[in-house]
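Hey, resending since the last one bounced:
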Amino acid sequence: MTLLKSLLSLLALSLAATLPAHADEAANRLRMAALLEEAHLLLDELKALDPTTAMVDAEGTRLRDADRALAEESARLAQAMDRHNADAAQLGRDFARHRQRCPRDMADAAAIDSCNARGAELVARGQEQDGRYKALQAQRADLNRRIELHNSAWRTWQGARREHAPRLDTNEADAQHWLDRAIAFMGSADFASLNALARSPQLCRGLRLDAARVYSGVRGMRRLTACLEAVTAGLPRLLEEGERAPAASGHDAQPE
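The structure tokens again:
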């Protein structure tokens, strides 16, 4: 490059630095500011819903955990009832054999004593089984009561969720509409110019704006909003008409 061309290039850069920002840049900034303002309004609405959302989510988690715990307890109780029934059936068979071996008209004293001892043992087993059965019945009644309370809690939660969900769905839909417009803007040359002026903030690197539905709903809106905020913060001040640009050197400008 010749010295003249070099001087002309430097002069062009110097003149560009002293001119006010182009109208299209100002328009792009306004467009980005409008997108950010809308996003902030939507996020504020979501923030107002956050306590209810957290409560509904926490209650849903608790109820699902209770579902599993009650199912496991019910299964253990059913197994205990099965064991009791098997023991009761075995006791019935033992009583039947005892009656066969020990008729009422026995004459042998030793045999009578043996039968009485065996009979007492079987009666004791029967009493023990009766006690276990009553305990199992009490457990079943208590479990049924807690299941009823749990089912009532489910119904209450489902009502709260039905009331709350449409508001969340509306915000998700609004966020998606915002995303569609934001992605169209952020994929344009207009935004690329602003991003370059802001020196491509870290929060904007790695965005995939060329693929469909990479960003969706509120989560996607938060991601793109962070980028737009970073670009806004990184942009140099928009120069007004007739205002000088800062001097290119590190020395302070001297008064005329």
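Confidence is low (pLDDT under 50) at residues 1-21, 241-256.

Sorry for the duplicate.
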